[in-house]
Please model this.
Amino acid sequence: MITLSFLKLLEDNGFGVIDTNLFFQKLTLDKKGLYIADVGDPISKGTRKSQSFELLARGNSDVDGYKLLNEVLDFLSESYSTVCELPAVPPISLQTYSNVLIRPTASITNVGLDANNRIIYSITGQIIYKKSL
Amino acid sequence: MAVKSTLSKWATQQSTVTDRIEDVMTGVILTRATMLAPVLTGALVNDGRVEKNPEGGRSVVFGSNSVPYARRRHFENNLHPQTLYYLQRAGESVAKENIKKYVDMSEL
Model:
């Protein structure tokens, strides 16, 4: 659920609304917006854990999704390149996360055209965190 | 006096790391193929999964008894020709990226 908290963080910072244009694991929806998916199993080391994710964007035009992901990357590098906290997502989850480091691992990738001729863009990254009690 | 070799321990660690890298790469291929696949009823895009191969490694698979047309849709689609080779294109988008990205995502 750490990626859901990350999506909530994006919602709190004006990137959209969950289930309207921010989607958690719902890759099969053919809507415009940002989609987040867990990639691989979480990795544990001591009290810290790591979850890899992929953030995909489908926009109104060919450059729309790219711009959106670029804004997310700017936001992460400006505000979250150091340790931070991720919020709870009530009523789904009251779990918060502390000592969080959100680390995008590459630049924006053009994945290809979808069924409606819109370009899908993607960034991948890693969230390193510790669960708060 | 003896010198102890830790090569087998190192080999085990490397095997675990390789397994994680494969886990992440197939996960990314699956998410991308799901976004690129044609959507009509939603059955095809909901059918994608990662399977562990008995001989080792993992495969990203679309198609089952409930979605027997997955293979055909990969090679033939008159309604949405831009979705052809959705799984192949997803795999290629990962293959053309730097492997270091996936190594970084697999380490803590």
